[in-house]
């Protein structure tokens, strides 16, 4: 396979038409609230990893589990990229009325784009954290937080980091 862009091969590239059952779709017996999304550092060199933390609170009356999902969006890229890319997820059990702080690492290689080889590019990115994809409409409410970060430096091959 020589074309790794996947354009036209997966729902992430189908324009405005949303999938019927996107990743993470489902119902819950409780409600969750996300807050305090922190990206560190907010400006990083092209080969650096990003640290992410978010607080998840079970605001309902039942103990339950939530699948916390992190998505990355390129604000500009030299080649076609997905609307957003799943970069991390974790199933977390949270007791009713309690909260937990979660930490993630988004590796530099997860920002790579295919341009005849895997490349890292500088620019602005948006990271989404929540119980569903950004903009997803479901019967079970779940919020999605977002924060921007910047990557500085010059574009380089992934293997050059």
UniProtKB/TrEMBL annotation:
Pfam families referenced in this protein's UniProt entry, alphabetically: Fn3-like
EC number: 3.2.1.21
Gene3D superfamilies in UniProt: Glycoside hydrolase family 3 C-terminal domain, Immunoglobulins
Organism domain of life: Eukaryota
Domain spans labelled Fibronectin type III-like: 66-133
Keyword Cytoplasm: no
Extent of the signal sequence: none
Keywords: Hydrolase
GO BP: carbohydrate metabolic process
UniProt-recorded name of the protein: beta-glucosidase
Source organism: Oreocharis arfaki
Upper taxonomic lineage: Eukaryota, Metazoa, Chordata, Craniata, Vertebrata
